[in-house]
Amino acid sequence: MRQSAMSKQKAMSTGSLVGEIFQVGLYKPSQGRVTRQATCGVLWAVLAMAAWRAYETLLGKTLLGTDAWQYIVPLTILVAGFWATYRIVNYPKFADFLIAVEAEMNKVSWPSKAELVRSSIVVIFVIFSLAIILFGFDLFWRGLFQFCGVLLTK
User: Fold this and answer.
1) Could you list the residue range(s) of the whole structural domain that residue 153 is in?
2) Using one digit for the tens of pLDDT, what is the confidence trace for 86-105?
3) Is residue 92, in this structure, part of any structural domain at all?
4) How many Cβ atoms are within 10 Å of 70's Cβ, its own excluded?
5) Closest by alpha carbon to 17, among 99, 98, 91?
6) In this predicted structure, what is the pLDDT of residue 87?
7) What's the structural domain count of the chain?
8) Residue 38: which residues within 8 A CB-CB, separation 6 or more?
9) Prediction pTM value
10) Which residues make Cβ contacts (< 8 Å) with residue 55, sequence separation at least 6?
């Protein structure tokens, strides 16, 4: 009995993407929820922007004798895109990847606020220091090349 459950899970995880689009169930629903929800939300936001852009592009244009296209096309993009994105996030291979990402992110030791501030100050100081040093080198080499006649001034 255990063998058949494992083979059923393996058969489900190796399904085609087209077959997955028409599924209703979730793949491993209790694992990687936060990462899947965040990924789905970001993709939905991109789709919403694409639908808005399609609406603005079609605004005031008449296709096939009707103005309804300015609403039909963006709504189609939203509905089809939202469903496809929801299903792609639950596609077994992609869902396993997102589950692994969430597991690895849970292993990360995040810095404290004080440590983050100190590190940021060091990085900003080093960047400005290097900019000043490079500016000095630039002035030196420009002056040297102008003195030698290699670089002519205006």
Assistant:
1) 110-154
2) 888 888 888 899 889 989 98
3) yes
4) 19
5) 91
6) 85
7) 2
8) none
9) 0.57
10) 70, 71, 73, 74
Q: Running DSSP on this structure, what letter comes out for residue 25?
A: S
Q: Which two tokens stand for residue 87?
A: 């299903």
Q: 105-142: buried (b, 16+ CB within 10 Å) or exposed (e) per residue?
A: eeeeeeeeeeeeeeeeeeeeeeeeeeeeeeeeeeeeee
> Does residue 80 sit in the same domain as residue 36?
yes
Q: Is residue 1 predicted with pLDDT exceeding 60?
A: no
User: Cα–Cα distance between 80 and 87 in angstroms, integer?
Assistant: 11
Q: Based on the fold, state whether residues 35 and 95 are members of the same structural domain.
A: yes
Residue 78 sits in the same domain as residue 101: yes
Residue for token pair 């291979």: 93
CA separation for the pair 85, 83 (Å, rounded): 5
**73-81 average pLDDT score:** 90
Would residue 4 count as lying in a domain?
no
Q: What is the greatest pairwise CA distance in the chain?
A: 88
The SS3 call for residue 10 is helix
> Is residue 51 a contact partner of residue 78, using CB atoms and an 8 Å limit?
yes
- Could you give phi then psi for residue 66, rounded to 5 degrees? -140, 150
CA distance readout (Å), 127 to 111, 117, 123, 144: 21, 15, 6, 26
Rg (C-alpha) for the chain, rounded Å, is 28
The verdict on residue 17 lying in a domain is: no
Question: Residue 86 and residue 76: Cα distance in Å, rounded?
Answer: 15
Domain assignment present for residue 18? The answer is: no
